[in-house]
Structure formats: C-alpha cells, structure tokens
C-alpha cells in the first residue's frame, strides 16, 4: 500500500468521524432547543386564554428545525459517501427528533386555533346567556 493511499484512508476515516460528530452535535442542539416537559406542563395563568397563550409560547421550538436539518444534511452526506460503519443509531435518533418536532409543531398549531376560538366562544356564550336572561325578564 502506498503512502498516498494510507493517507487518503486515514483522512477519510477522520472525515467520517467528524461527520458523525457533526450529526450528533446537531441532534443534541435540536433536542436542547425543544421545550422542556415542565415548560409545557406548568402555568401561572389566571384563565384559560392565559393558559393557552402560555402553552403556545412554551411550544416554540426555536432553532430545533434548523439543527435537525443540519443533522440530516450531514447524515445524508455521510451515508452517501459510505462513511459510517454503523449509522442505525444516528438514523433512529434523527427519526425520533423529527417525530417529536412534528408532534410539538402540531400541538402548537392546535393551541393557536384554540387561542383564536376560545375568546369567540366566550363572547358567544355571554351573548347566549344575556339573551336568555333578557327573555326571562320579558316573561316576567
């Protein structure tokens, strides 16, 4: 084996290790950007709208999508270059973070809808009860 081939293999091995490390770092950063369990569970709000607004804010995923994108990009590069000896763990971690991110984003959208609906519902219920009280006083 020539010196140049050995150096190429050694460089490729280093690059593969660095690529794996990049994937792992971006996955870690994506997880770190996600809200904590306590962030979405605990509240200081005085009413339902306050709870919903707090939950909507708590469900902000920050930079997690960008970190996940970077992890997927480096993973794809490493896979296509056949740089990883064992990449099943990376693939599973990427899928787990991606599924969690999708769940959080769906919950954020649901809470956003409720944040818009609850005040309208409250107003409609107040009107309905005011009408009922008005009808009752008309009967007297």
Automatic annotation (TrEMBL):
<keyword id="KW-0175">Coiled coil</keyword>
<protein>
    <submittedName>
        <fullName>Uncharacterized protein</fullName>
    </submittedName>
</protein>
<dbReference type="InterPro" id="IPR043808">
    <property type="entry name" value="DUF5790"/>
</dbReference>
<feature type="region of interest" description="Disordered">
    <location>
        <begin position="1"/>
        <end position="20"/>
    </location>
</feature>
<feature type="coiled-coil region">
    <location>
        <begin position="80"/>
        <end position="107"/>
    </location>
</feature>
<feature type="compositionally biased region" description="Polar residues">
    <location>
        <begin position="117"/>
        <end position="126"/>
    </location>
</feature>
<feature type="compositionally biased region" description="Acidic residues">
    <location>
        <begin position="130"/>
        <end position="140"/>
    </location>
</feature>
<feature type="region of interest" description="Disordered">
    <location>
        <begin position="111"/>
        <end position="140"/>
    </location>
</feature>
<dbReference type="Pfam" id="PF19103">
    <property type="entry name" value="DUF5790"/>
</dbReference>
<feature type="compositionally biased region" description="Acidic residues">
    <location>
        <begin position="1"/>
        <end position="12"/>
    </location>
</feature>
């Amino acid at each position: 084996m020539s010196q140049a081939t050995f150096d190429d293999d050694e460089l490729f091995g280093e690059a593969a290790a660095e690529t794996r490390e990049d994937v792992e770092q971006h996955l870690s950063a994506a997880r770190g950007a996600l809200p904590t369990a306590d962030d979405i569970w605990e509240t200081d709000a005085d009413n339902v709208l306050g709870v919903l607004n707090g939950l909507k804010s708590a469900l902000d995923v920050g930079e997690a999508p960008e970190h996940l994108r970077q992890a997927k990009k480096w993973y794809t590069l490493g896979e296509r270059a056949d740089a990883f000896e064992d990449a099943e763990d990376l693939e599973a971690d990427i899928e787990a973070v991606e599924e969690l991110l999708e769940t959080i984003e769906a919950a954020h959208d649901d809470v956003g809808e409720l944040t818009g609906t609850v005040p309208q519902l409250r107003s409609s219920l107040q009107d309905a009860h005011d009408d009922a009280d008005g009808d009752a006083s008309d009967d007297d």
